[in-house]
Amino acid sequence: MGNEDTNFAPNATGPERIDVGSDEALRTWAKRLDVSAEQIREAVAKVGDRASDVELHLKGSRSTTNDDRIEAAK
After folding, report:
1. Is 25 exposed, middle or buried (0-12, 13-18, 19+ CB in 10 A)?
2. CB 54 within 8 A of CB 40
3. Could you give the CA distance from residue 64 to residue 50 in angstroms, rounded to a whole number?
4. CA-CA distance, 1 to 24, in Å (whole number)?
5. What are phi and psi of 66, to 5 degrees?
6. Which helix (H) or strand (E) segment is 3 a member of?
7. Whole-number Å distance between alpha carbons of 68 and 50
8. Whole-number Å distance between alpha carbons of 6 and 36
């Protein structure tokens, strides 16, 4: 991991955790992951507070599959 990874967390729970009890942390994570604070809360409720798990969950829920792209092109 590079230095930028260790500075990713905006809260005191550590660089890999999201503190949903902190409005500031929620705003920062929401901005970094380009989602709403509510989406961060929902993702943490589903997959836990590890930032990498939350990011993967959110990206997975927003991404399209190849089948989706083929259907859209028809």
Report:
1. buried
2. yes
3. 23
4. 25
5. -60, -40
6. helix 3-6
7. 29
8. 23
Which residues have a Cβ under 8 Å from the Cβ of 67 and sit 6 or more positions away? none
> Which tens digit of pLDDT belongs to each residue from 1-40?
444 444 444 544 556 899 999 999 999 999 999 999 999 9
What is the average per-residue pLDDT within 47-72?
76
DSSP secondary structure string for all residues of 7-57: T---STT-TTB--TT-HHHHHHHHHHHTS-HHHHHHHHHHH-SBHHHHHHH
How much is the pLDDT for 48? 95
Residue indicated by tokens 């955790």: 17
Q: Tell me the one-letter amino acid at 49.
A: D
Structural domain boundaries in the chain: 3-73
